[in-house]
């Protein structure tokens, strides 16, 4: 036998090998594969069944309006977590007549709330959304109105209870809705709302922090704000560019600041509009108007970021006491039939109880 035959014989006796190593591949019987596919189908069907109860945007029928700031929460777990805040913080008692959802949209959040609180009400301005609400939740009490124009005092009295407010707020009017709730704080127990993450941080910001603002001062004076959790932007549809946060505002047993609201409002706006400047500069127009020569020495060189909410109240009280309001009655809500004396200044500083902090129309924000 020559060398060529020896090589050929060696090749013939060598077992064939696959180009790929199949030693780790598990070959399952056909029955087992079929069983696993069935389980996956059942799991998928269960998930779809759980989410099918939540109203979705009707294809080709409802396109979110950018002009109304419509970004709907699309994550069911986040909706449930938001609705559960009332259970955790308020005990979740009653039939829900005290629950008011602001900006219900097509009712994704409303559907979950309504199961817990069948006597709740929802406020919505978009007629297309109201059509969806009446179709999906026919027994829901819907108030067709602008959330900034609703008389929450009248709603509270009609329901014979203080209100629990909940809502996914439009970004572009978030601050004004919050100021509106402050105007009606005597008729609201609590509010649980979403806000742009930056706004949520401003609400709970402390002096000396970058986010400290008018919103920080006002909401910390009139309520007890608490930042609960963050919502990623992909949990909304359409997907916004920023994340959101859930804020709880506790208005219960929170007394109003012992100063005239319109004086406080003027001080806050003048100072935070020029937040880098000292009070002696930013409040100059206000002080000249009220014939006040100068501020107390400890405040003249201070800036708004340095003053606590209670510090702003003390400043408002000082201005009330030393200012000449006789020539500025209209600007500060003065009434001729009131005397101009009190330990805090003019006792006639009584603004309209329903409109202090919010503006008149969306276009003014």
Automatic annotation (TrEMBL):
It holds the Pfam family RrnaAD. Residues 41-61, 336-365 are annotated as: Disordered. The keyword Amino-acid biosynthesis does not apply. GO terms for molecular function: RNA binding; rRNA (adenine-N6,N6-)-dimethyltransferase activity. SUPFAM superfamilies: S-adenosyl-L-methionine-dependent methyltransferases. Belongs to the class I-like SAM-binding methyltransferase superfamily. rRNA adenine N(6)-methyltransferase family. PANTHER family: DIMETHYLADENOSINE TRANSFERASE (PTHR11727), RRNA ADENINE N(6)-METHYLTRANSFERASE (PTHR11727:SF18). This is rRNA adenine N(6)-methyltransferase. It comes from Babesia ovis.
